[in-house]
Amino acid sequence: MDSGVLIIDAEREAKHVSSLLAKLEREHGETEVVLSAITVIVLEHGLHRAETAEQARKRREYLDTVFAAIPAQSFTAEMAQLAAKIDAEARQVGRTIPFADLIGATALHFRYAIGTRNQRHFDMLPNLSVVKL
User: Which of 1, 56, 60, 97 is within CB 3.0–4.6 Å of 50 for a Cys-Cys bond?
Assistant: First the structure.
């Protein structure tokens, strides 16, 4: 799952992760939901960029709930190699793939789809199945 889905639900819409998971199951059926280790980096980065102690506390609380509810996939050497290949091929044709969007390497490795609200970014990754949330 793309970090943007969790960030929007938490910060802007004040939703609990269980609401998001229930909505996903209603709309897409029973499916395995996981986070890439890169998604964890992006989410934790946002925590450490909090502007106030209260904002940091709320983000920590939310992330702890997310990490308890949704397992994170380890990032392996094979995924890193795939991410490097995807990025290099994109740059050869003049495209830049943001670091956070390389979570697609995890999805491709496991043959998962990416759940996102930012489909345009992930359309740059060849052979990646993208589910708009």
Answer: 56
- The per-residue pLDDT for 10 is 67
Share of the chain above pLDDT 70, in %: 95
CATH of 77-132, one of 3.40.50.1400, 3.40.50.150, 3.40.50.1010, 3.40.50.720: 3.40.50.1010
Backbone phi, psi, residue 31, to 5°: -150, 155
The answer to whether 6 and 71 have CB atoms below 8 angstroms apart is no
